[in-house]
Amino acid sequence: MVIAYHVIMSAYGFWLPNDPRGSWSDSIRKWELFRYGPATKVNTRNSVAHVPHNRALREAAKEELDFPPVRFSEQQIQIIAQGFVNYIEKSGVTFWAAAILDDHFHAIFMRHRYKSEIVNNLLKGELTKALVDAGQHPFGEFAKQGEAPPPCWGRKWWTVYIDNLDHLAQAIPYVERNPEKEGKPRQHWPFVIPYPQTLAGFKALHLKKPV
To answer: Which CA distances in Å does 40 have to 34, 65, 187, 194, 195?
Structure first.
């Protein structure tokens, strides 16, 4: 039984549909990207971030994007964190870990009455809304009059299904240490709830079946 989800959501331009390491996509919507190869959809639920690949080819493909790849500032990262708070207040989803970096984020949330796809999609919308409301959307300058700015998040995300406590005990520290891989300190977000360390504590949370 799935007990939690580890979602990795990337900013625009971070992970292309034909990334040589593999991707979430089975099609390419921008013609200019085809010169760098077809979509590289994979079925694995494990991260492929560290798979050896042609880095120069990957970076060259990004030059064909309509907008520059997003790199969130520290101010924007704080606004994204507030977006998490806003979403939690509306949904009641429990997050056990989160790392918000300048071009993607990792988050682990407890199984909820909503399916993971719904949680991820609504969360993405709430984070975008927080950036727009604060006047800090990365593509705010490209927004047409009366229209929303171009999406600053990728269309897809990577979800790892966690179905046992051993996996969960490994996934949480992995997310917590993620900023350190980029030479940054660990993050301590107030919306993250410490994971109950015992099986009895976990069962006491009264998991509900998803709809």
So the answer is: 11, 17, 32, 36, 35
Amino acid at 57: L
Q: What is d(CA 167, CA 157) in angstroms, rounded to the nearest whole number?
A: 20
pLDDT digits (tens, 9 = 90+) for 46-68: 555 555 655 565 555 455 556 67
The tokens describing 37, both together, are 């190869």
C-beta of residue 139 within 8 angstroms of C-beta of residue 110: no
**CA-CA distance, 84 to 90, in Å (whole number)?**
10
Q: What is the DSSP string of 157-199?
A: -EEEEE-SHHHHHHHHHHHHHGGGGGT-PPP--TTBPPPPSSH
Q: Tokens representing 5?
A: 């989800």
pLDDT at position 133: 96
Per-residue burial over 55-76, b if 16 or more Cβ lie within 10 Å, else e, is: eeebeebeeeeeeebbebeeeb
CA distances to 15, 100, 107, 159, 175 from 8, rounded to whole Å, are: 11, 10, 7, 6, 10
DSSP 6-68: EEEEEBTTSS-TT-TT-BS-S----GGGGGG-S--B----S--TTS---HHHHHHHHTTSSSP
